[in-house]
Amino acid sequence: MTVFDEQAGQYSEQNPVLVNHATDLAYVIYTSGSTGNPKGCMLQHSSVCNFLHSMKLAPGITEDDIVMAVTTISFDIAVTEIFLPLVNGAAVLLVEQEAQHDPYRLQAIINQQHPTIVQATPSLWNMLISSGWAGSAQLKALCGGEALSKELSSELLKRCGELWNMYGPTETTVWSLIQQITPQTGLITIGKPIANTQVYVLSASGELMPLGIIGEICIGGAGLARGYLNKEELTAENFVENPFIKGEKLYRTGDLGRWLPDGTIEYVGRKDYQVKVRGYRIELGEIESALNSYPAIVACVAVATPNASGEKDLVAYIVSGQPVAVADVRSWLAGRLPAYMVPGYFVQLPELPLTPNGKTDRSKLPAYHHHSAQPTIVHVPARNVAEEKMAAIWQSILGQENIGITDNFFELGGHSLKALRLLQAINSREPELGIRIQDIYNRPTIEALLQQKAESSRIIRLNRDTTSANNIYLIPPILGNSILYKQLADMLNGEYNCYGLQYSGLEQGEPLYSSVETAAQELSQQIIQHQQQDDFVLLAYSMGAPIAFEMVKILESKFNSIDLVLVDSQVNQQSVDKTAEPQEIQWLLDQYRAMLPGHDADEKRLHGFLANNYRILHKYQQQGRIKSPIWALEAQDTPFRTQMEEWSEYTAGGTTHNFLVGNHWQALSEANLPQLRQVLLALAPPKAQEQHVPE
């Protein structure tokens, strides 16, 4: 501005009076979030100033920079592109609206105008790279708004001088955590908090989550919005009292994450993208994170979609610059996720549908087809009548056609409930085969299943064998069926080879045990025949504990190192109350039905099986001591707290006593699985833990 000398004297030499305050609103910006209902976030001057000051420090900006403004003003990351350069004396390169969705036009602008800082969503970066953009060595690339894949980060690092991963909700002023990504970066994380920002990972009840355990990302500090305009109830719901800093608030992001040892946070996904499939609670973001780590995948989305039978199927939509082999992706995921989280179907798209803000529009994903994924490389059709009959049964249970005799039941979308249905269907149509549930788990192809012989093995393989993992044998409770451990086994995939042992009498024609010692004798022989080396774990729950104790007495003569983990079982049960026995057996029968839905065993036979187990358990009297250490995990709501401390009298190896949440029948519930896994990882030799070093 030019002021002529003769005019200068007409104006006051005093600075103008400040009429604005740090707590005044800087802007109200509307966001639909995950609910689809627009809400106006009220951001104050102080929050914006703190954000801009922190961005100056990192990723950093100087007066020599040129920032390309490519984002619509209705998206809050435009604050970075417009105000950050202006308050630091840098230049803003405004891009016309038509160019914002034209990668070739954007490429031309970058090549002609030479911006030094460009911020965009992963979708826009992918679009730019797909258009043939060669990159710029002077460019600092900021990527945020969605998860950054390993493939995209590799492509950007080839084309840019610096790459930063940015994370933050609108409610905490644009970005709240940042991380520089380098060629040496292993796991892609959202980094650490910016200046004057506190980040917590909390449980549903507001408790701090331990290192490595998933919880909700909650943010406090100078970046918090005042709340939502004219939405007091929603404000109170999402902006809560900070229990760690009196008088301050926390914003509950609805995002899930976990702390890593280096002090960064790994983003896992949205709470509202948490689904329940076949009884398993699944974070779709965890599946997407694993998919994003696959070298050829540049973008992906995981969804849970109801199928014709009303059950939910996991479907992965992937984008890649080349054809992707489903078998390779499935194998990649199998080494990083529990089996129940590996999608049954994969759909490759040229690109993902986007919202106007450049984020994935899940509502516009195309319908998937059952033939979209073929897990086997070579299709081997049925060769005889027996194989044709079996293939027809498989097709009816799995709802698929053209199933080959070498196709894996579980890779075709089979799971524990479908395995039980398959067992019932085979034995009702082909009773002469005498198929048992362990046969389906141990021989999950038509060819192998028909080749099986009626052998004495009572061992079920509950997850995939991994040569670098350790072995754990799982002894069931009074219900006698180790499929109860399937959810735990899936969680331990890659860390332990999980083998369940089945009680005799569970299947038709099998003899019942005459005592706990008899059961221990038979089951320990199974392990002796199966286990090739020392260093394994025996885990037993309820009635399984005294059987496992007697087994260890036998096994210690063959093996030098056994860890015994006992879950909620007292020493020596009370004697049987004959008048209460019928009610007890009926209650156990009801528990069997509840814990193993779909297993429609003959009720009379099952009743006799449970009654026999009940009686031999209550006749058993514990004696002697073992050398092996005992880990005692007790349900905290049990009627007699600390009853498991008595196990210390029966071992020379010492006991470790901890509590699980809930009552006896909730000991293996989903809420306790993370703690059970942590205990078992502490027992595993280093070779099992090496499987989870971030790549």
UniProtKB/TrEMBL annotation:
This protein's cofactor list reads: pantetheine 4'-phosphate
Which biological process, per GO, is one annotated for this protein? Answer: amino acid activation for nonribosomal peptide biosynthetic process
Domain Carrier intervals: 381-457
* Organism the protein comes from: Hymenobacter rubripertinctus
The entry's protein name is: Amino acid adenylation domain-containing protein
Known InterPro entries for this protein? AA_adenyl_dom (IPR010071), AB_hydrolase_fold (IPR029058), ACP-like_sf (IPR036736), AMP-bd_C (IPR025110), AMP-bd_C_sf (IPR045851), AMP-binding_CS (IPR020845), AMP-dep_synth/lig_dom (IPR000873), ANL_N_sf (IPR042099)
What is one term from the GO cellular component aspect held by the record?
Answer: cytoplasm
- Single GO MF descriptor: phosphopantetheine binding
Which keywords accompany this UniProt record? Phosphopantetheine, Phosphoprotein
A Pfam family recorded for this sequence: PP-binding
Indicate whether Phosphoprotein appears among the record's keywords.
yes
